[in-house]
Amino acid sequence: MNERALVQKNTRYREARNLLEQRSILPVNGDYTTRQLAEELSRRGWHWTFDPERAEETKAYPPSPSTEQTIVAEGPNSIASLTMVLASAIRFDEEHGLSSIRPFRADIIARTPNGSTAAVIEVKNREELSSEIATTLRRNLLVHGLRSLHAPYFMLLSQEVGYLWDQRDAFKLYTPPTLGFSLRPVIERYAPWLEPGERLGEAQLELIVAGWLKDLVETDTESHAPLEDVLEETGFLNHVRGTMIVSDTQV
What we know:
Elements: H1 3-9, H2 11-22, H3 34-43, E1 47-51, E2 54-61, E3 64-74, H4 78-95, E4 105-111, E5 117-123, H5 131-143, E6 153-157, E7 161-166, E8 179-182, H6 184-190, H7 202-218, H8 226-233, H9 236-240, E9 244-250
Parallel strand pairs: 5-6
Antiparallel strand pairs: 1-2, 2-3, 4-5, 4-9, 6-7, 7-8
Helix pairs in contact: 1-2, 2-4, 3-4
């Protein structure tokens, strides 16, 4: 049964999808994945198991760590089962006033000398990272912790492309990037050993990006590479110059 037919036929699955989308847990290219749903359950503190037609999740909750809630859902496939147990987990957390979201940890932050955040940089090294997908990823991050930052700039990067949002005048939940740019010049400069077609791990890419950003914020020169010229036109370069680049930071 295809996704559209399943949504139309299975009322509980349709309601579960609607709840997830209302909480800005959005499918990419129209479909959820087992990894996306399982990671969301883990992030909310639920321990899960699943097979092709059944998913189960358990969570300890106050007043005693030994007190547990178990939720089971059965569906025509693992995606449907995980979608329904995740929706049930969200309802349970909200009904019982439980903390459902762990503290957000940004991949990289540009921090000013007075401790404020000048920019947040997230690394998502997925292939074919389009503007539309990047916008959806940013929206999810905003809902799950970044909205309280009100950082002037937000950047989302893969090893091929980067997207920059100028948030100084407006901090909207869903808005396209201010700028899209190729990150290939940065990869060629900071990872000259990379073979054609070789894919970096996100931890590797994060180190490369952090090195590039540190050079950017510490360099005060009128001579820039073309990419830096473009970033300067947006105001990003001047805004982060003199900041400290910090990785894996709770915000």
